[in-house]
Design goal:
The structure is a single chain. With 85 residues, this protein is α+β, with helices and mostly antiparallel strands. It has a domain at 3-60. It has helices spanning 10-15, 35-40, and strands at residues 3-6, 16-17, 26-27, 32-33, 46-47, 49-52, 58-60, 64-68, 71-72. A 3-stranded mixed β-sheet has the order 1-8-9. A 3-stranded antiparallel β-sheet has the order 2-6-7. A 3-stranded antiparallel β-sheet has the order 3-4-5. Strand 3 (26-27) and strand 4 (32-33) form a beta hairpin. The radius of gyration is 13 Å and the shape is globular. The structure holds zinc ion (ZN). Zinc ion binds at residues 18, 20, 22, 34, 36-37.
């Protein structure tokens, strides 16, 4: 079972929170990152699953499909970028 998140869609963003309930997380290549956690907890802010506020269920990165207006999310910082010129 997987869920889609439209990264540019506020209503989608509001459904999903980091393990500590913040909404300003950002996707990275294999996990997520939360600047609020990084700032407040003195941790690196990295986490591996988003919590759906409505159901309380946690979805791992692998079970989430992240969509942008240009298509599926890809981390441009990835070393595995395809078609680089
Ligand atoms: Zn957080």
């Amino acid at each position: 079972m997987s869920e889609e998140i439209r990264l540019e869609d506020e209503s989608d963003r509001w459904k999903w929170v980091c393990p500590n309930g913040h909404r300003n997380w950002e996707p990275t290549n294999n996990h997520f990152w939360c600047p609020s956690c990084a700032r407040h907890l003195g941790a690196d802010g990295v986490f591996h699953g988003l919590r759906n506020k409505a159901t309380g269920e946690v979805y791992e990165r692998d079970n989430l499909r992240l969509l942008t207006p240009a298509g599926p999310y890809q981390d441009l910082r990835s070393d595995h970028r395809e078609g680089s010129a």
